[in-house]
Design goal:
The complex is a heterodimer.
Chain A (H helix, E strand, L loop, with lengths): L13 H42 L12 H14 L3 H11 L4 E8 L5 E8 L2 H11 L5 E11 L8 E9 L1
Chain B lengths: L12 E6 L2 E6 L2 E6 L6 H8 L7 E6 L5 E6 L7 H16 L6 E5 L7 E8 H14 L2 E7 H7 L6 E7 L4 E7 L2 E8 L8 H8 L7 H4 L3 E5 L8 H5 E3 L12 H4 L1
């Protein structure tokens, strides 16, 4: 028999108070574990960071400063070495008649161009050689830059300066 | 436990309002203040409890101020609202009004088929609240006399619980602590004693011959107990709110 139910006094909210007390107990019991877990996590992350630091390669020594002129020269040398000299020479040898002399072959501007100088006593041979070079791999285009007749005129030699575009 | 500075932890004070008097029992002695009506209660409480600020108070209200009845729970009534509506209907049939100005409490055991219902005037609860505020005390128990007496009764076997106030008799039958029935009896005649009252009341409860021999848990001061077989059945209820000097049992035992 629940005699308390027949009591008219203001009732203390026992269910709510008990729930609150239970919640506080659970929290009180759980907080140390939570703190431990947090400490474990932070300890583990610190260990992981330490091991990662130990496992990482030693840092590279600081780069030495390179003078601008030297860098420009090195870049130019690298660009020159990167030119497809061998294919170009092979293509040139394939079309060059015996009376046409290759005087010079040097890097041009931009880096996909090569400036070539040819000499011959026959202008027709020079023109035919240049025409044959066009479209021959790795040559994509041929641009005639200069045509001159060498002195003395009695020797009758001609010089062509041509820009080859390669790919 | 009386701790200085912590009056709330001290033993509660026993306060009783019955027969037009508010009585405070402290250490076996009684102090009385007239309080003939509910309206006089706050001032009487403030007067009696002026020296007991912060203490807890257990208040017992005489059965003449309450309505007590046993109610068969209607089938299908599940929610407290439905049950309260049924109880108000029952009050209408018993007392002639639906008790709108009364506050109801009932046992409300989920497995029970009947409820013990106690109703108190809402104005009385407000007066007690006002009295507690005026005296700065805390009312932690507020029960009718018969309820308090039945709650203190033994839990085993069948038992009659009778509270004999100055103008009221309230009788209930308990079985293993559960209330089988409770009702207000007509006031006893001038020469009636306990045996007469029980002889008239027991048929109202449909009592068996074994019930007629069940012990009687008696509280209150206004009914003589005959000597002989009837007195052997009587157990004295501990009326904690009343001062010892007013207990009728002292001379009767």
């Amino acid at each position: 028999m629940n005699w308390r139910a027949l009591d008219f006094a203001p009732r203390f909210p026992w269910p709510g108070a008990l729930l609150l007390a239970a919640a506080l107990l659970v929290l009180a019991a759980g907080v140390p574990r939570w703190l431990d877990a947090r400490a474990d996590v932070s300890r583990a992350s610190a260990l992981a960071a330490e091991s990662a630091r130990l496992a990482a390669p030693p840092p590279a020594p600081p780069a030495r400063a390179i003078p601008r002129e030297r860098a420009v020269a090195v870049n130019a040398a690298v660009a020159e070495l990167n030119q497809p000299w061998a294919p170009l020479l092979r293509a040139l040898d394939a079309v060059r008649p015996p009376d046409v002399d290759l005087v010079s072959l040097q890097p041009g501007e931009p880096s996909t161009h090569v400036r070539m100088t040819l000499e011959s006593s026959s202008l027709d041979s020079l023109a035919r050689c240049v025409a044959d070079l066009r479209g021959r791999p790795p040559i994509r285009g041929v641009l005639l830059r200069r045509q001159e007749r060498l002195d003395p005129p009695s020797e009758g030699r001609f010089r062509l300066t041509v820009d080859l575009e390669w790919q | 436990m009386n701790l200085p500075g912590l009056p709330f932890l001290a033993a509660p004070l026993g306060l009783a309002w019955r027969d037009g008097q508010l009585t405070l029992a402290v250490d076996g002695a009684g102090e009385c203040v007239p309080a003939p009506a509910i309206a006089a209660l706050p001032e009487a409480m403030a007067t009696l409890l002026a020296r007991h600020r912060g203490r807890r108070v257990h208040l017992r209200v005489g059965d003449e101020h309450v309505r007590l009845f046993q109610h068969e729970r209607p089938r299908g009534a599940r929610s407290p609202g439905e049950l309260e509506a049924a109880l108000r209907l029952r009050m209408q049939s018993l007392y002639g009004d639906a008790g709108q100005a009364w506050t109801l409490r009932w046992t409300a055991a989920p497995w029970a088929r009947s409820d013990t219902v106690c109703a108190l005037p809402a104005a009385l609860l407000q007066a007690v609240r006002a009295g507690c505020q005026a005296s700065r005390t805390h009312c932690t128990r507020l029960r009718a006399d018969w309820i308090a007496s039945a709650a203190d009764a033994p839990r085993r076997g069948r038992l009659w619980v009778l509270n004999a106030g100055a103008g009221t008799l309230t009788l209930g039958l308990l079985a293993d602590g559960r209330v089988l029935g409770v009702r207000r009896l007509p006031p006893p005649g001038r020469h009636d004693d306990l045996a007469d009252v029980m002889a008239r009341a027991q048929p109202l409860f449909g009592a068996t011959p074994e019930d007629a021999l069940a012990p009687i848990w008696l509280s209150g001061a206004a009914l003589p107990v005959p000597r002989g077989a009837a007195s052997a059945r009587v157990r004295r209820a501990d009326d904690g709110a009343a001062p010892k000097a007013t207990r009728w049992q002292e001379g009767a035992r």
